[in-house]
Amino acid sequence: MDRNNRENIYDEGIEYSYISLISKKLRVGIVGGGKAGTIKARHFVKNKCYVEVISKTFDKELTELSKAFSERLKLIAGDFCYEFLKDKHLIIIALDDENLKNITKKYCEENYKIYIDSSDFISGMGVIPIQRSAENAVFALNTKYGNPKGAVLLSNKVEETIKEYDEFIKYIGLIRNKAKSFPEFKVQITSFIGNDEFKKSFDKGEAEKALRSRFSKEIVDYLINF
After folding, report:
1. What would the pLDDT profile of 66-86 be if each residue is shown by its tens digit?
2. Whose CB among 6, 71, 115, 192 lies 3.0–4.6 Å from 108's, allowing a Cys bridge?
């Protein structure tokens, strides 16, 4: 990508399209076993993805990480090969060899693989966001202008809010799943519980009372039986 195109991207802000992937089904391939590869491997294995790293040598920390997460992290010692990429959903390019980087990118583009260039995220297809989670909710955050410190600041603020809502989110999630048994009332139930007014009732310990004021005894008895 030439310099002018880079400047245009930064001037306009980067647009992202998000999708939440189910960690246990995601196979990640990392090309490069140095510091950059270690950072990316740590992120994915801690989020319960399956990760393989190919490299001639491995950072000591990465080797230790593979021992701690032996079921989800495999280190493959050797030269890069296309076979390594074939069964991966996501490819992380974590090396400085420009020729090898270009070879890997070309393969990914020709075979419709999603890839991330850890040394220059704009030349890849995406970037790994800051990810935070509470017991019942998880979120990921990026900034449009490549601002890691700003992203951390925002994430801390969002995390505080999520923790305030965490138990409430669990409660209404359980009710929503039970509401599927009443298809004719499902929309009414989810609309009634999915707002700050119902959260106020929840915080006061009056969520059941609020539900009974709106729905029949039969419905409410079933909804809160979990």
Report:
1. 999 999 999 999 999 999 999
2. 115
Strand-pair category, 138-141 with 130-133: antiparallel
Q: Which two tokens stand for residue 113?
A: 């693989």
Which residue type, as a one-letter code, is found at position 107? Y
Q: In a 10 Å sphere around its CB, with 0-12 CB exposed, 13-18 middle and 19+ buried, how is residue 12 labelled?
A: exposed
Mean pLDDT of 88-103: 96
By residue count, the chain amounts to 226
Residue 171, token pair as written in the block = 């409660």
Per-residue DSSP letter, 194? S
Burial of 78 (0-12, 13-18, 19+ CB in 10 A): exposed
- The whole-angstrom separation of Cα 168 and Cα 206 is 12
Q: Which residues face 117 on adjacent strands?
A: 93
Is-contact 122 1, C-beta < 8 A?
yes
Taking the C-alpha atoms of residue 33 and residue 48, their distance in angstroms, rounded to an integer, is 19
Beta-bridge partner residues of 76: 54
Q: In this model, does residue 3 exceed pLDDT 50?
A: no
Contacts of residue 30, Cβ cutoff 8 Å, sequence gap at least 6: 37, 40, 41, 51, 52, 53, 54, 91, 92, 94
Q: Is 6 a residue whose pLDDT tops 70?
A: no
Query: pLDDT band for position 188 (50/70/90)?
Result: very high
Listed in order, strand segments (DSSP E) in 120-196 are: 130-133, 138-141
